[in-house]
Design a protein that fits this description.
- Helix content is 39%, strand content 12%.
- By secondary structure, the chain is an alpha/beta fold.
- The chain has one domain (3-14, 51-168): HAD superfamily/HAD-like (Rossmann fold, 3-Layer(aba) Sandwich), CATH 3.40.50.1000.
- A 5-stranded parallel beta sheet has the order 3-2-1-4-5, with helices on both faces.
- Strand 4 (126-129), helix 6 and strand 5 form a beta-alpha-beta unit.
- Helix 4 packs parallel to helix 7 (151-164).
Amino acid sequence: MITVYLDMDGCIPDFDSKTIELIGKRLRDFPDSASGWAAMENHKDIYSLLDKMPDADELVYGVQRLSYEFNFEIGVLTAIPKIGRIPLARQHKREWLKKHYPFLLENFQIGPHAEHKQFHCVPGDVLIDDSEMNIPQWNDRGGCGILHIDAKTSLEQLNRYLATNQAIKNTPI
């Protein structure tokens, strides 16, 4: 059975809006990662403060609905900042899921970092992620990487992938 993994930040919780609120811009708008995370120094609870993405429910419940039709597992595959920059990131991400989508904790994986997500791929697995870097890495491992732009587009791409992979489709009841 395949697994469809959802990335967290940028797909389910809205990380960018919170960083704009706290430090005035998105982390990717800094000249480098280190300076962006340095600006977050006084916001080590960032992951517990995040709001949902505007279309998070559509994405999560849409994937859940497709899981009933196509018989796949749903998981979360997220990353945490390097070098212990946000020491409680793992705990805060789990708490966030428990509050908003507790059923997703059944298969909660941490990369630990973005470049390690690819090592969770089993051929046929799907990763829905807003990071362009992760998609080709996932595809190179035999999975299907879907670059998340919005819930509607991701669900359409997921449905197309599942519909063409008849080996995983359930027989109608």
